[in-house]
Write a structure and sequence with these properties.
alpha/beta; 3-stranded mixed beta sheet; 14 strands
Length: 323
């Protein structure tokens, strides 16, 4: 297949490009490199540097290539930042996506896999979280993703563009062959922050140890990025075969606490982390984890690498190598 990957220089996007190339697809990548990394893009992919907000740029990409499907990662994704810069998030995450859909429509491309998020659910009323759980985002980021899901619904009804929304829980880990990993600036994810604390001997700040959980710290559902990439292959297959839109939660169905993360990083690294307990951060729910039964049944989703040790061992090896 000929696949367009937007945001293909980012963390999950670069894994997706690698996986598509491994199975023999022709891949075109769009990325502004504002937060992505050029070195993360496999040289076998055709790369265009630019922003989806630039219609002339997007027109050039579509004029020079023919696509069977689109996988759309390109978005700003920091919940905290989105609360300080809402215009930036709504403009980029919605208008950029709208430009993409318009060029898909004009070029007869009717399949898109959308990188969505569990942030659309907010603090869940019931656990585990199903696809039908109440949606009340607590950040502009989460709201922008939910709004674009609604845009996709209308482009299906009006133009017949079929979509699958993949609602990630917490992407984590690095490639098992050591070639790709997670590198954000600023970094907000607990696993790379904990690993860098172990590597550099700097303090690790734990935000809250008084939640109503087993050890008092927040619980989250972590899924290995290799398993996430594979889920997009399954979504493409479903779109091709069934030609219908749908949405799926992608998680393991189990949660791990922040303390369990720290303990596993210490175990894998052989290093004691200097942990400093701080007060809770506003908007952090005590726990959230997925019901992935629908993804297992209807997509054939089977996370093979998402046990906590594999996630952290792979991340540790990558960070220790690139440090």
């Amino acid at each position: 297949m000929n696949i367009l990957v937007t945001g293909g220089a980012g963390y999950i996007g670069s894994f997706m490009v690698k996986r598509l190339l491994e199975r023999g697809d022709d891949v075109v990548v769009i990325d502004s490199l504002e937060r992505g990394h050029r070195q993360a893009i496999d040289n076998r992919a055709k790369f265009y540097e630019g922003n989806l907000l630039d219609k002339e740029f997007v027109a050039q990409v579509f004029a020079e290539n023919k696509f069977d499907a689109v996988i759309h990662f390109a978005a700003y994704a920091l919940a905290g930042e989105s609360m300080k810069e809402p215009f930036k998030y709504f403009q980029n995450n919605i208008l950029g996506g709208l430009n993409l859909l318009e060029f898909m429509k004009d070029n007869g491309i009717n399949n898109i896999v959308f990188s969505s998020t569990c942030a659309i659910y907010g603090t869940p009323d019931v656990l585990p979280v199903t696809e039908d759980s109440q949606k009340h985002p607590e950040s502009v980021y989460g709201e922008s993703k939910l709004m674009f899901e609604k845009v996709l619904e209308w482009y299906d009804k009006v133009y017949g563009i079929k979509h699958i929304n993949l609602r990630y829980f917490n992407a984590a880990g690095a490639s098992l062959d050591g070639t790709l990993g997670e590198e954000h600036d600023p970094e907000t994810h607990i696993i790379p922050i904990a690993i860098k604390a172990a590597l550099g001997g700097v303090p690790f700040f734990l935000f809250g140890d008084d939640y109503k959980t087993q050890d008092g710290t927040c619980i989250r559902d972590y899924i290995h990025v290799e398993d996430l990439a594979e889920s997009h292959i399954l979504a493409l297959k479903k779109l091709q075969e069934e030609k219908s839109s749908d949405c799926f939660n992608l998680g393991t169905g189990n949660g791990h606490s922040n303390l369990q993360i720290i303990e596993m990083v210490e175990k894998v690294s052989g290093t004691k982390i200097n942990m400093v307990v701080k007060s809770r951060r506003e908007g952090d729910p005590p726990q959230i984890f997925a019901d992935n039964a629908k993804a297992k049944k209807e997509l054939g989703f089977n996370p093979k690498y998402s046990d906590l040790r594999t996630i952290i061992e792979s991340a540790w090896k990558w960070h220790a190598r690139v440090r």
